[in-house]
Design a protein that fits this description.
It is a single chain. 42% of the residues lie in helices and 14% in strands. It folds into 2 domains: 135 residues, Aspartate Aminotransferase, domain 1, CATH 3.90.1150.10; 237 residues, Type I PLP-dependent aspartate aminotransferase-like (Major domain) (Aspartate Aminotransferase, domain 2). It has a 7-stranded mixed β-sheet with strand order 2-8-7-6-5-3-4, sandwiched between helices. Strands 9-10-15-12 form a 4-stranded antiparallel β-sheet, covered by helices on one side. A two-stranded parallel sheet has the order 1-11. The protein is of the alpha/beta class.
């Protein structure tokens, strides 16, 4: 049995289920088990719950409920937009930033094998989209553009509204992956839509909701073809019986996140300031420190220290955090995000991420910094002995 971490510092990967969210879900995991497509009382009860969840999600991001297409999560939402929009038109140019989530760049690569041209947009050393390269891309007449609102590794926030305004006259469909931004930044789809953003992806389990629930917020003028055909649920764009308990939880989590957004963001920013002061004292290089970032995210490295080893040693001491390395059966690779930012591969392979959560305490930061200092001292002593 794997021991549970005493201090959880990996909230960008997933968050604990909020008690009030679980409470909202429980009736639909027990006696309220109707299919929302059924016309009897049980089905109507489920349909009302689904409608309420759709309204809660829409309200959290300034959208209309009819613009909410429920999915199994952010990855499916990203694929639904990119592949759905691509299927509805002739192959052209699909452009995305060099630091997108794999569900975007791998979906784009799949379209590349079907005749689409794929263009990566460069970023600067802080992980921000280079405006000059974005403008150059617009000159190549893109059909689809996808730019994440905030990066899951560095926390860097993109100027999505500004870039969408620049792209408005191109005629391209513009999508943003807002999975990490939800619950951490104010999101207003109506304003973004006016600027030229046509679709936005969301996920429940990043904001205290359940895994397996997400949404694509999409302007109804966008023509999409479904990834899944069947009974015609979700305006015909996502067939299959809806996961009512998870979607009820998604709605409840969105409502809770909206209520506490400002207070939580301010408190997490103070905690991160405490964390990064301690990291700097230990000699860390902190990535994207000069960029506008999510208030809960810190991505850092220590020269000469392997990130995976550091994460593993700290896990043994009861601290859960993320590594910037992508592991495969063949080798450990450096973060594609850091490489795109121009970070040397050797330094990038040591990257470690701390992502704070809504219930994080100052004591967690102090305990982590102490354990980190002791672990670094041990690893450096081992390295010196081996030299």
């Amino acid at each position: 049995m794997v021991a549970m971490a005493a201090v959880y510092l990996d909230h960008n990967a997933t968050t604990p289920l909020e008690p009030t969210v679980l409470e909202a879900m429980m009736p639909f995991l027990t006696d309220r088990y109707g299919n929302p497509s059924s016309r009897h009382a049980w089905g109507r009860q489920a349909r009302r719950a689904l409608d309420k969840a759709r309204e809660q999600v829409a309200a959290a991001v300034g959208a209309h409920p009819t613009e909410v297409i429920f999915t199994s999560g952010g990855s499916e939402a990203n694929n639904l937009f990119l592949k759905g929009a691509a299927s509805a038109t002739r192959p052209g140019l699909i452009a995305h930033s060099a630091i997108e989530h794999p569900s975007v760049w791998r979906a784009a690569a799949a379209l590349g094998r079907q005749g689409w041209r794929v263009r990566q947009i460069s970023v600067d050393g802080e992980g921000r989209v280079l405006k000059e390269d974005f403008l150059a891309m617009l000159g190549e007449q893109p059909t689809l553009i996808s730019l994440m609102a905030a990066n899951n590794e560095t926390g860097t926030i993109q100027e999505v509204e500004t870039l969408a305004l620049l792209a408005h006259e191109s005629g391209a469909w513009f999508h943003t992956d807002a999975v990490q931004a939800l619950g951490k930044l104010p999101l207003d789809f109506r304003r973004l839509n006016a600027a030229g953003v046509h679709a936005m992806s969301l996920s429940a389990h990043k904001i205290g909701g359940p895994k397996g629930a997400g949404a694509l917020i999409v302007d109804k003028c966008v023509e999409l073809l479904p990834l899944i055909d069947g009974g015609g649920q979700e305006r015909g764009l996502r067939s299959g019986t809806e996961n009512v308990p998870a979607l009820v939880g998604f709605g409840a989590a969105c409502e809770l996140a909206s209520v506490r957004l400002k207070e939580t963001a301010q408190r997490l920013a103070r905690l991160r300031e405490q964390l990064e002061a301690g990291l700097a004292a230990l000699g860390a290089t902190i990535f994207a420190q000069q960029a506008l970032r999510l208030p809960n995210t810190s991505f850092f490295t220590f020269a000469g220290i392997d990130g995976e080893t550091l994460v593993e040693r700290l896990a043994r001491r009861g601290f859960a955090l993320g590594s910037g390395a992508a592991c495969s059966s063949a080798q450990t690779q450096a973060s594609h995000v850091l490489l795109a930012m121009g970070v040397a591969p050797a330094l990038a392979r040591g990257a470690v991420r701390v992502s704070l959560g809504a219930h994080q305490a100052e004591a967690d930061i102090a305990e982590f910094l102490q354990a980190l200092a002791e672990t670094l001292s041990h690893l450096r002593a081992m390295t010196a002995m081996a030299a």
